[in-house]
Amino acid sequence: MPFAPAALIGEAFVGDGPNAAHTNVVLGRKGGPVETAWATALATPSAGHVPFVTVVRPSVPVKPLTLFVNKAAATGDVHERATWGSAQAGLARGVADAVADGVVPADEADDLLIIAAVWVNPAVDDLDESFRNQRTAAYRALRAAAEGTPTTGDVLDAAKEGVTNPFYTPSEEQLARSTPRGRVPRR
Questions:
Q1: 49 is known as an active-site residue
Q2: pLDDT per residue over 46-86, tens digit each?
Q3: Of 23, 47, 62, 143, which is most buried, counting CB atoms within 10 Å of its CB?
Q4: Distance, first Cα to last Cα, the chain
Q5: Is the Cα dihedral 102, 106, 111, 116 positive or negative?
């Protein structure tokens, strides 16, 4: 059976502060729904969001071909340099690392496509840290996609410990007040 007969999805968040990287990936085969989404996204940019092919260097796209989709419109010199420069380079290197390590089989790379939705904070201030974080986030997101992690059990265990993200953590009081009416917890 070929690698990724159905779309694989992965996510990773690496770093903290304005140079953190949050990357979502969809990995799938050419000729399938991921190719349709890939081509559609490339052909239909919107104001501030112009998907582009990720390159290792000019005229050398990374394999599998990877579409960089920015989650934040690039604004200002440093943010633009991070989006099209350090984050793109980190994404390209993270994908290449995943292929080199066998996370994504090298012999199938030409038959696969990746869509990467990448967060680059408009307050980014360190291009080197941005590159390092994006490289690691890309690699981890692809590994999660390939391994099917986290499992549902992992998600339920994490939810019991408490939901949180870099932008918000609800208090115990808020968790209690926001419980859906009629919810019957399973044990």
A1: no
A2: 988 899 999 999 999 999 999 999 999 999 999 999 999 99
A3: 23
A4: 37
A5: positive
